[in-house]
Design brief:
This protein is mainly alpha-helical and 754 residues long. It is built from twelve helices and twelve strands.
């Protein structure tokens, strides 16, 4: 966590990324933990030290005041090769920090164990190299294998100067390698173009280069230079003093192609130069912006330090005012306690009278409450009896109603049976009358189709059926009479039951009225009993309070006297604290008035801003120049390529013209010259490739040296002083080496962290 009390330079950046805690509060928390658990194993405090010497001394003082006074700090004394065991360090705090060993001079150490500072560092390819070895020597430069050290007595070169030299050498070497690579690419392109041109000429001649060369050797002719004109005659080929039209144009255009190539190379060189100037301007701008950022950071640190001093002074002034108010309140409290003491004397006199009166009233109230509770209990018992009686009579009424419902249902069934019997008798009478009419008709022999015997037989059958219906009618009438008699009995019984129901309803209603009346009386008596009991409880509480006041009057008197003494003592202490806090506030106010002025830092920021703006203008100008040079180089390349294509076309046209004029000899000379020119360009490309490989190796070495120089500069920036007080409290020395073998050779109190 960040430390707010001892914030200094880089500590501010570390604290800004995490929550802040006061260093003293952390020490107090550790001390409280060890006081609560004294049998715990040792606590190791790793101090990532970013503070100046002044604040380091304050840290050491704070550790001594908080942990040292409680004997919770392990003091190393003379460091030995054998460290104490954890059992020997129970209940102790061990400090892990940096311990200067004198190798870097005075009390300087290498602060190399912070992950946030090493996050962007790139380790070298050669793991045998360790830049910590160079911090104690006069390093004047670097190569790919390591540092270059100056002899003893020579003026020491700063790490920034070594880095700048390595950067310039790396830029120059890489620029030379890029130039060589571009020249190699151009030569290869020209060689391929010349080779394609010579191959075309050889195809036109119809011979290979070896065959053509052999032919020329056999003829004894000497080869002329490229572009030399010859004249064919009956005596052989001879050199012309003036070229014909096509060859003159080709020669003139060949010179133009060479000029455009030279212009292209010059434009490329100019573009690379502008690119290098742009890179230098960009690096310079980055450096100036870093300087401006450092100046602004220093201004912010001083401003925050001044604000902190002002805030501390304001807090001290507020504390002094609060202490003054506290002292004034303490004096007022003394006056108030004296008034309470006087009241206590007066209350002690009247406490006995109040206690006697309260006791008499409590006894009377208790007696009245008991009598009211007895009356309420008797009334509640009587109401319960009436409730049971009302429930019994209501149950009898319900039983009679159920009986009445059953009898009415039975009467309805009997009436239904009478109606059914009457309907059956009526049906039988109707059927018997119909049969009688039929018998009379048969006996009168009104149907001519029937004989006397048939008529007699039908009449006999009908007579029998009529007798059956008459008998069924008699049975239905008999049943009807029986059902009517039963219905009359049920109706008489229903009347008797209805009379009983009316009588029982009156009895049940009377019982319920008696129950409601007795319940109302019981509720009223219970409410009265509760009121009497509440009054008795209040008078009992009053008696207890009066008794308590009577018994504790002397104690209250003694307590008030003790409070008066305590208030007088607190008032004296508050007055003294107010005086001390006022003196502290005045001292801090004077210190706040003597804070570091911001004007020099503001001037430095303004100067750095102006320099940065100048570097930015140079950067923009170099960027514009680079873009323009790149455009000119691209245009020159385009013109050169166009000229090369035009030259090839002109030479082909010249060859065609020579062939048309049957100038075979001149065509052969041009083909041989073109082939030799292509081979010469290939040889130059091979030489240029060797040169490029050599320059590329040098550039790789310079880049490796720049990486080492960068790491050397990063290490040198993290060399800082360690206060003697903090070093004396430290037992474990934290270090970070990339070489484990080297780390293992250090003493046992050096703790390796990776």
């Amino acid at each position: 966590s960040g430390v707010t009390s001892f914030d200094d330079s880089a500590a501010g950046k570390a604290a800004s990324n995490s929550s802040s805690l006061a260093f003293r509060d952390v020490m107090k928390s550790v001390s409280y933990f060890l006081l609560s658990k004294p049998d715990s194993y040792p606590i190791i405090l790793l101090i990532e030290n970013h503070c100046s010497l002044r604040f380091q001394e304050r840290m050491a003082t704070c550790i001594e005041e908080v942990l040292g006074k409680n004997d919770q700090l392990y003091r190393s004394g003379n460091r030995q090769d054998l460290l104490p065991s954890p059992a020997q360090l129970i209940g102790k705090v061990v400090i892990k920090c940096k311990i200067p060993d004198g190798t870097l001079g005075s009390n300087m150490v290498l602060n190399d164990d912070f992950d946030d500072e090493l996050r962007n560092c790139t380790p070298p390819v050669d793991t045998d190299y360790d830049s910590e070895d160079d911090l104690t020597h006069n390093v004047v430069g670097f190569d790919s294998k390591g540092s270059i050290r100056a002899p003893e007595g020579k003026r020491r070169v700063s790490a920034d100067a070594v880095f700048q030299n390595a950067r310039l050498e790396s830029l120059e070497a890489n620029s030379a390698a890029r130039n060589a690579h571009e020249q190699l690419t151009d030569l290869r392109r020209r060689a391929k173009q010349s080779q394609r041109h010579s191959d075309a000429l050889l195809r036109d001649v119809g011979m290979t280069y070896e065959e053509l060369k052999k032919k020329r050797e056999e003829c004894g002719d000497n080869l002329v230079e490229e572009g030399t004109e010859v004249e064919l005659s009956s005596d052989g080929a001879r050199v012309k003093e003036s070229a014909d039209h096509a060859l003159e144009i080709a020669r003139a255009f060949a010179e133009s192609v060479e000029d455009s190539r030279l212009l292209m190379e010059a434009a490329n060189i100019e573009a690379r130069s502008e690119e290098e100037i742009f890179e230098l301007a960009r690096e310079e701008l980055a450096d100036k912006e870093a300087v401006l950022a450092e100046a602004e950071e220093e201004l912010d640190i001083v401003s925050s330090r001044n604000r902190e001093a002002a805030q501390i002074a304001d807090r001290a002034l507020a504390e002094a005012r609060m202490n003054a108010e506290f002292a004034e309140n303490a004096a007022k409290r003394v006056v108030a306690v004296k008034g309470l003491l006087s009241k206590s004397h007066n209350q002690a006199v009247s406490s006995e009278t109040v206690a006697g009166t309260a006791d008499a009233e409590a006894k009377i109230s208790e007696k009245r409450a008991l009598e009211a509770e007895k009356r309420a209990s008797r009334a509640r018992d009587e109401a319960e009896k009436h409730r049971l009686k009302a429930e019994e009579e209501s149950k009898k009424e319900d039983d009679l109603l159920m009986e009445l419902d059953a009898e009415q249902e039975q009467l309805k069934l009997s009436q239904d049976a009478v109606d059914a019997a009457r309907e059956r008798a009526d049906t039988c009478v109707e059927k018997a009358d119909q049969l009688t009419d039929q018998i009379r008709m048969v006996k009168s022999n009104e149907d001519p189709d029937l004989s006397i015997e048939e008529s007699s037989m039908i009449a006999s059958q009908k007579t029998k059926e009529r007798k059956d219906h008459i008998k069924e009618m008699e049975d239905a009438l008999t049943e009807k009479l029986a059902r009517e008699a039963s219905a009359r009995k049920v109706a008489s019984k229903i009347d008797e039951t209805r009379r009983k129901v009316d009588l029982q309803a009156k009895v049940a209603a009377s019982a319920r009225r008696n129950y409601d009346h007795s319940t109302s009386i019981a509720d009223h008596l219970e409410e009265h009993a509760l009121e009497e009991r509440e009054a008795a409880n209040l008078r009992q509480l009053a008696r207890e309070r009066a008794t308590t006041v009577l018994l504790t009057s002397d104690e209250v008197l003694l307590s008030t006297e003790a409070q008066l003494a305590e208030a007088q003592k607190g008032a004296a202490e508050a007055s003294e604290a107010a005086r001390a806090s006022r003196e502290k506030a005045d001292r801090l106010a004077r210190e706040a008035d003597n804070v570091q002025h911001l004007e020099p830092f503001q001037v430095e920021v303004e100067m750095a801003t102006e320099i940065r703006d100048q570097a930015l203008a140079i950067y923009e100008s170099s960027k514009t120049s680079r873009d323009e040079a790149s455009e000119r180089a691209a245009e020159a390349k385009r013109v050169h390529e166009s000229n090369c294509i035009n030259l090839a076309n002109l030479e082909r046209d010249a060859m065609a013209e020579l062939l048309q004029k049957q100038s075979q000899d001149q065509a052969e000379l041009l083909a041989i010259s073109s082939c030799e020119n292509a081979r010469a360009l290939q040889d130059r490309a091979g030489e240029q490739r060797t040169k490029y490989i050599e320059l590329n190796g040098i550039a790789s070495d310079k880049s490796a040296a720049l990486i080492l120089a960068t790491r050397y500069r990063e290490k040198s920036k993290r060399v800082q002083p360690i206060s003697e007080g903090l070093a004396n409290l430290t037992l474990l020395h934290s270090c970070k080496f990339r070489n484990w073998a080297k780390s293992s050779k250090f003493p046992c109190y050096s703790v390796h962290a990776w």
